[in-house]
Every structure is written in C-alpha cells, then in structure tokens.
Amino acid sequence: MRLIYTIGIRLYTIGIRMAALFGHKKARLMVKGWNGVYAALGKLSRYKPTVWFHAASLGEFEQARPVLEAYRQRHPDCQVLVTFFSPSGYEVRKNYAQADAVCYLPMDTPSNVRRFVKKVNPDEVFFVKYEFWYNYLNALREHDAKTYIFSAIFRPEQYFFRPWGGWYLQQLRHCFTHLFVQNEESLRLLKSHGIYNCSIAGDTRFDRVHQIALAAESDPVAEQFLGGHTGPVLVAGSTWPPDEQLLAQIKNDKLRIILAPHLIDEDHLRQIETLFPGSIRYSAIKSHKGNKSSRVLVIDNIGLLSKLYRYATVAYIGGGFGVGIHNTLEAVTFGKPVLFGPKYHKFQEAHDLIARGGGFSHADGAELEQHLKTLLSHPDALAAASQACLNYMRENLGSTDTILNHIEK
C-alpha cells in the first residue's frame, strides 16, 4: 500500500510541475518554494533542539499559532520550524517572526523525506487537524521524534475507517505519540478502532480568535464608511458568488454591508460591483466623496476581515453554497450572530451554534431574509443570539494549555 501511496504522490508532484510550466500561478509558487527549502533550513542551528510545526495553509497555521507561541514562551531554548503545503499559507507567513525558519514542505516521497528529516533533526513535531503525510510519519517514528496532531476531527466516512483503509489506520495507530481531538465523537471512533493514545483537547481556533479579538484595533476606513450610520451593519466574510447573489437581494435600505470576498481578483471585484451598484472599494474610499450614500463597502485586500467583524450587528459567513463554510469563530468571538448557507455539516462549531441559538443556516434568499428580519427587528432575539455566541466562546477556550500541559507531563 505504501508503494501505491508513493506513486500517487509522485504523480501529483509531476502534475504540479507541469501546471507550473503552463503558467498556473499557485503551481509556480509551489515549485519555486520547493527549490528554496534547504536555503531556508540553513537558518536552523544544529546545536539547538528543534520543534517543527506543519500547517497545510493559512487557516491551519492560524489554528497552530496559539500552540506554537505558547510553546515558544515555555521553551525559549528551542528553535521553531514552520512548514506549509499551500502558497496561501507560505506567501502570507513566510516572514513570521516567531519562527526561526519557514518553508514549504517537500512532497512526501521517500527520498525527499529522508533528506528533510535528516536536515531538520526534529525533537518534536506538530501537525494540525487533517495533515497525514505517511512517509513523513514513518520517518519521524524511525527518528524517534515525538509526533502530535491537534485540533483533529475524525468521522466514520473518512478513509481510515473504510474496509480498504486498514493501512492508513495503522499509521494513525503507530506513528503519533498522541492525537488531540476536538470532540467526543472523534475520541470514541479512534478508541473503537484500537487507538488509545488520544484525548479531547478541543479546538485551538477558539484560543486564536480570542487573541485576535483582544488585540484588534479599530479600522479608520471602515469607520469612515460607516460615518454616523446608526442602523444595522452586516459584515459578510469570505463570500463566493452564490453568497453575493443572495446578499444582493436583501431589501433593507437601513442596512450597511461590509463585504469581504474570498477571492479579490479584478474580475470578481467587478462582478460584485455589478451586483451592488454604488458600492465602494476599501482601497478607494479615501478619495470617495459620497460614501454616505453607498450601502456596500467591498474589501479588496487581505488580512482585515477578523477585525472588521467588530463593526457587525450580524455576520454572514461565506462558502455555504460551495465546499463548506469558512471561519465562523472570528465573528462569534465578538458576540456576533452568524448566518451561513446549507453546507455546514462538517463543522462542529456550526452545529453547536445552531443548537445554542447563535447560528442560523439558510437554503435560499427567502430564509436569509427571514433570519435577518428576526434578528434586526427584535432586539431581544438579537441580544440572546449574541450572548449565546459569547457563552460558546468562553466555554471553549483553553485548548492550548490542555495540549501543552499534557505534553509536558
């Protein structure tokens, strides 16, 4: 089975390299990143213990940050390596100050793995949520590195637990020092398959978004857009075209919308401007003379969304009509009720928020309008939903300490 797995990795690598040759932007960034791995690793000292954190992309890195930064505080003598699979993580965080070195993860072939693990010589390794690279995991076991995964979720339909998934299940059983899972369902599932080196530690995203909220500064451009507006504000984050089409149908002249699309290429921004006539881009608002008449502010850069939720009366989370909703917790940490589409079932926090009355799912524009009307027309309903969000956040903080305290025992 390992041979088949490795062949698949090699074919995927060839596909990325071919796509790069034909100008695919992300593929070109990945290939360029692979070529720079060992120059980046040259920043590590061979005389210090090395702790390696791997995240697939930017979202998983933000999930890892509270653990990484708390670990660094507790162990200042260690050096930290951060690796990424995706350009969406590396290109944003390649200069992350808390890491001694940041690079792409070389593809999971035996030759790459041997060279990389020998060079890094890690003492402890942390993977985040869904990262299972089997040649790396086996090499780390042979290297006697302590290897962990945290904020993990397991479901019966995953390939580990299928009739043909026995080999993958063996890797879970033998290659991790400990698996920190998010919920009781994951814990029961692992134990039912003979994996006992696991425990519930919750989701480190709660700790991370709480840190962001505490440190969030005001945004002068958003405040200029809102001006003296005293009516409701909808902050719509990580939206896709189906989300934007529904939002454009909302009939509420008193509502201001701050719209942060997931993709900010020029074609998509122009589509949004067509849907929302009179909207103004974040980058242009300083020279805009009539922003008081504009109902929609379009965010055309990255890195702002998490602090913009503070201005929301209600938040809309995009992705629910595609592969799945984006991060609800960035809004919830400010006590903002969240609205999202029907594809939320893989996200435990969405289920929890719906059950508690802080989250609301809609299948179409009519349902979205109804949820908005209920929240915006009934102050008691809005206050109850906001309090449910704050309570949910408060009850789920502390995952970072749970993980590190377990390891240090």
Could you describe the 3D structure shown?
The protein has helices spanning 2-21, 25-35, 37-41, 58-74, 87-93, 110-120, 134-142, 166-175, 184-192, 205-215, 220-226, 241-247, 266-275, 305-308, 329-332, 348-356, 365-377, 379-395, 399-408, and strands at 50-55, 79-84, 101-104, 124-128, 146-152, 178-181, 198-200, 233-239, 256-261, 280-281, 296-298, 314-317, 338-340, 359-361. With 409 residues, the protein is an alpha/beta fold. Strand 6, helix 9 and strand 7 form a beta-alpha-beta unit. Helix 4 (58-74) crosses helix 10, helix 4 (58-74) crosses helix 19 and helix 6 packs across helix 7. The model has no long low-confidence stretch (mean pLDDT 94).
Topology at a glance:
Blueprint: H1 2-21, H2 25-35, H3 37-41, E1 50-55, H4 58-74, E2 79-84, H5 87-93, E3 101-104, H6 110-120, E4 124-128, H7 134-142, E5 146-152, H8 166-175, E6 178-181, H9 184-192, E7 198-200, H10 205-215, H11 220-226, E8 233-239, H12 241-247, E9 256-261, H13 266-275, E10 280-281, E11 296-298, H14 305-308, E12 314-317, H15 329-332, E13 338-340, H16 348-356, E14 359-361, H17 365-377, H18 379-395, H19 399-408
Parallel strand pairs: 1-2, 1-4, 2-3, 4-5, 5-6, 6-7, 8-9, 8-12, 9-11, 10-11, 12-13, 13-14
Helix pairs in contact: 1-2, 4-5, 4-10, 4-19, 6-7, 7-8, 17-18
